[in-house]
Amino acid sequence: MEIRELRYFVAVAEELHFGKAAQRLGIAQPPLSRTITQLERRLGIALLERTSRKVTLTEAGAVLLAEGHAILSAVTAAERHAQQAATAHPSLVLAVKTGTAGELLTKLLDAYAAEPGAATVELLLCEAHQHQRLLQDGQADVALLHLPFDSAAGLDTETLYTEGQVAILPASHPLAGRSQVQMADVTTLPTLPMARWPGPGGSYPEGPGAEVRNLTQLFQLIALGRTTVVIPESAAADLRRDLAAVPVLDAPSVTTVIAWPPRSRLRTVADLIRVATRL
């Protein structure tokens, strides 16, 4: 199977429309259709069910789509890593969720920069649940994740630290003056429903709370009295004056880990991980 054939198939499988897939690939539709037909003939299986009205995936096609994503991500990462290895000034990309791990990130970047032969670290600020795809696609070399909120499935990790959680409330709210609260105190507030984060597929769970993607947006909505949230203590550092952070005694602990693809062989990544675990 050629990489070109796999790219063509993945485009059709995702669009479920030959015309849209051809437009996305920048090619004419007839050669795209011929390539998919040749691929099916060579494999001896049907990957797509075609009618005059729609295109659907067969069970075999669904399997190849999942495998194809992994293969194409590995190819993209291999291209980028090979280019990095050939440059006289290596760099690495660190993916971090916007607004999190502030103090740790500053210490990590300063400590790594002091290492002999340190590479240039490019920060890739991302939103919830994007780390895994960025690492798998080769857009990032390493990431800071917060378990159990982020998924580390299929990644290698090293634990950095574990911390408690706090409720973020408007400073004028009655609970804001307490020294501590329980989860039930926060999750049952009728006028401040819990904020909702997107899942791995990008969709939001059902509920009355505001849909949020990053802490900047979230804190603005909390200050306006629209929602509330329970987050790791470190994410509440340097909180704006119109908000308050109250420890939540029975909230589960959050573990921050540094994560990377298991296939990674970059010396720069190994050096950054070594510095992070030392800190």
From TrEMBL:
Matching Pfam families: HTH_1, LysR_substrate
Instruction: Supply the alphabetized keyword list.
Output: DNA-binding, Transcription, Transcription regulation
**What sequence ranges are listed for the domain HTH lysR-type?**
1-58
**Top-rank taxon, per record:** Bacteria
Question: Which InterPro entries does its entry note?
Answer: LysR_HTH_N, LysR_subst-bd, WH-like_DNA-bd_sf, WH_DNA-bd_sf
What family does the database annotate? Belongs to the LysR transcriptional regulatory family.
Against PANTHER family, the record matches this protein to: HCA OPERON TRANSCRIPTIONAL ACTIVATOR HCAR (PTHR30346:SF0), TRANSCRIPTIONAL DUAL REGULATOR HCAR-RELATED (PTHR30346)
Q: What is this protein called?
A: LysR family transcriptional regulator
